[in-house]
Amino acid sequence: MKRSNSGNTMISEGRAHFAGFNTRELRCVGSGPTFVLLHGIFDSADTWSGLLATLASRGHSAVAVDLPGYGQADRRQPGPGLAQLDAFVRDLVQAEGASEPAVLVGNSLGGNLTVRAALDPTLPISAAIPIDTAGLGYRPLIESLIGRYSPPSALVSRIPWLDQIALSRQGVKFIARSLYAAPTTADLEAAARMATMLGAERGFASIATEGRAMLREMDGGFDTGEVPPMLVVHGRRDNMIPSSAALRLHRQFPGSELRILDHCGHCPQLDDPTLIAELITNFALRQPQQGQLRSSQAGL
Question: For residues 121 and 74, what is the distance between their CA atoms, to the nearest angstrom?
Fold first, then answer.
C-alpha cells in the first residue's frame, strides 16, 4: 500500500495504492476506529460525501475510496472482478486497521464486499455494516437492465441513442429515482455525475456487459462462517434490491442486527447521512472488545 495526500480541509482528497491499484480516497481524521466506506457498482467515493462531513463534524476517522474500475481508480484487469476487488479491500482494511481494527461499511456492491471481507478472520475488522447488499436478489428493473433477462450486449451496442438518454434530463431523473427514496429529495448533481460516468465514459453496452458479469459473480451468495459484529441495513424503498435480501443476509448470520429504514432507498447514505452516521457509530462503538479480540486472534 502506498499513499499520498493533499489538502487541509475537514475532508481531504488524496491518492493511494492498494493491491496494485491506484485510487482516489476521501478522508476525515478523528479519534476511534476508522470507518472504511465502500461504494456500489458504477458509483464512486463521492456517494459518501455527506456521511464523511457528518462523521468529521463528530470527530470520527473515516475514509472512502474509489473501487477499482470506478471513479478515478485504475481499471480492473480482464476476467472475473470480485477476486480483484477482494484483494483491494483486503489491502485497504489491513492498512486502515493496522493500529485499531477498522469498521467496514459498504453499500450495494460495497455491501457484498463488506460481508466477504468480514468472513476473513485474518482481517482487523471490529464491525461490519453492509447496506442494501447486492447478491441476494434484485427487483425486475435490474434484472431487465443488467441482470439475467437483460438484452445481449451486441444488440444494445446497435442502439447509439441509449448513451445520449443517460445524459439527458430524463436520464438523470431516472438515475435519481433509482438511487433515492423520493425524487423530490434527490440530489440531481449526484445523479448527473453518475450519468456522465455511465453515458459518456463507457457507453450503455459496456455497462450492461459489466453489470451482468458482476451480478453473475455475486449471485453465489456468501459462505457460512464466523463474522465480527454485523449490522445489516436496508432501505425499504430501494428500487433495485428488495428488503427480502436483507432478511436473507440477517438470517444467514444469526448474530447480526437488522435495521430496515422506511424512508430510504438504495443509497441510504444519500437519503439520510445523519441517520446513517448515528447508526454506524452507535453500533460500532459498542463493539471494541470483540474487534480487539478478533484482531489479536488474526495475529496468532
Answer: 28
Instruction: Give the pLDDT confidence of 1-49 residue by residue, as tens digits.
Output: 544 454 435 899 999 999 999 999 999 999 999 999 999 988 999 999 9
**294 three-class SS:** helix
- Across-strand partners of 257? 231
What does the pLDDT look like over 223-274, one tens digit per residue? 999 999 999 999 999 988 999 999 999 999 999 999 999 999 999 999 999 9
Question: What is the DSSP annotation of 2-24?
Answer: EEEEE--SSSEEEEEEETTEEEE
C-alpha cell of 109? 456492491
What is residue 291's three-state secondary structure?
helix
Residue 58, all three cell numbers: 463528530
- In DSSP terms, 233 is beta-bridged to 131, 259
Q: How far apart are alpha carbons 48 and 200 in whole angstroms?
A: 23
Q: What pLDDT does 172 receive?
A: 65
The cell numbers describing 185, all together, are 429529495
Query: pTM surpassing 0.90?
Result: no
Do 126 and 228 contact (CB within 8 A), yes or no?
yes
Question: Are 123 and 96 within 8 A, CB to CB?
Answer: no
Phi, psi torsion values for 96, nearest 5 degrees:
-75, -25
Q: How far apart are the C-alpha atoms of 115 and 216, rounded to whole Å?
A: 17
Q: Running DSSP on this structure, what letter comes out for residue 202?
A: T
C-alpha cell at 51: 456521511
Q: Which residues contact 296 (CB under 8 A, 6 or more apart)?
A: none
CA-to-CA separations, 190 to 129, 131, 270, in angstroms, rounded: 23, 19, 9
